[in-house]
Specification:
CATH topology of the largest domain: Rossmann fold
Number of domains: 2
Helix content: 25-40%
Oligomer: single chain
Distance between the termini: 61 Å
Largest sheet: 6 strands, parallel
CATH architecture of the largest domain: 3-Layer(aba) Sandwich
Strand order of the largest sheet: 1-4-3-2-5-6
Structural class: alpha/beta
CATH class of the largest domain: Alpha Beta
Bound molecules: pantoate
Length: 287
């Protein structure tokens, strides 16, 4: 597995791989890799013969300096995770390598950023769009893998690819969870031990909401309240949002009449975690 730190060297490697007729896949990450990332790399390795992982903490997508500064980093462990999961190449550029010139280009997607994390993290998706477009240009991947834990990001990137005709297929992979349901996230490393158990209430709230839907409750406001009550039963949890949205348009739903996504952002102590679940209500036969 090759470790590449410059754009010039990356271009050489990609040209060589494509010249040898290899299928190139990309797993973009910000490092501090966990089992969720390993699952993305494994999925990429099962479909393609040249698996690239990018590890770059993209300052442009952080709307808080403290969040950027405290983002966990673990270079040597990350390299091991990539190796074990079947990566062929890891790209680990410095900030200066990627942004030697501050980008003048701006990308935004107002419709898909109107809800969920969009309003509470100004400029976040603009930063994501720019770095992902750049990574697609650098790697020219045939297929790219993203985790559905970042559901809004996954939908935004799918649309980026359609709108700009990037010749890349986007694969969304299911969220990998801890035994108690907590979604795996690099940020979990920053949770204080006393907040860790309370963090699992986010997923538990989705499961309770799912039960309520399947018992016939169809009002998104009432359903959201049920989830909120479960989350704040953890005294150190503070809700940023809990929303019920359409799975593709990400618009807030006024009534439940088909599959939907419930998504939440919650401060568990100091650490902001996001999670979501797609729910397809059970259709009851009526006689
Ligand atoms: O999901 C992430 O880790 C990041 O948002 C991404 C896609 C690597 C862009 O920096």
């Amino acid at each position: 597995m090759k470790i590449i730190r410059t754009i010039e060297a990356l271009r050489t490697e990609i040209l060589a791989a494509k010249g040898a007729g290899k299928n190139v896949s990309l797993v973009p990450t910000m490092g501090y890799l966990h089992a969720g990332h390993a699952a993305l790399i494994t999925a990429a390795a099962s479909e393609t013969d040249f698996v690239c992982v990018s590890i770059f903490v993209n300052r442009l997508q952080f709307n808080s300096a403290k969040d950027f500064e405290t983002y966990p980093v673990s270079e040597s462990e990350d390299i091991e995770v990539c190796k074990k999961a079947g990566a062929s190449l890891v790209f680990m550029p410095s900030h200066d390598e990627m942004y030697s010139l501050a980008p003048a280009l701006q990308l935004s997607m107002p419709s898909l950023s109107a809800n969920l994390c969009g309003p509470v993290r100004p400029n976040h998706f603009e930063g994501v769009l720019l770095i992902v477009a750049r990574l697609f240009n650098l790697f020219q991947p045939d297929v790219a893998f993203f985790g559905k834990k970042d559901y809004q990001q996954y939908r935004i990137i799918e649309r980026l690819v359609r709108d700009l005709n990037f010749p890349v297929r986007i694969v969304g992979c299911e969220t990998v969870r801890e035994p108690d349901g907590l979604a795996m996230s690099s940020r979990n490393a920053n949770l204080r031990p006393e907040h860790r158990e309370q963090a699992a209430l986010i997923y538990r709230s989705f499961k309770i909401l799912e039960k309520a839907v399947n018992n016939g409750m169809a009002d998104p406001i009432e359903l959201t309240e049920i989830a909120q009550d479960v989350i704040v039963s953890g005294p150190d949890n503070r809700i940023d949002y809990v929303q019920i949205v359409h799975p593709e348009t990400l618009e807030l739903l006024q009534a439940i009449d088909g599959p939907f996504v419930v998504a939440a952002a919650v401060f568990c102590g100091e650490v902001r975690l996001i999670d979501n679940m797609t729910i397809s209500p059970v259709v009851h036969d009526s006689f």
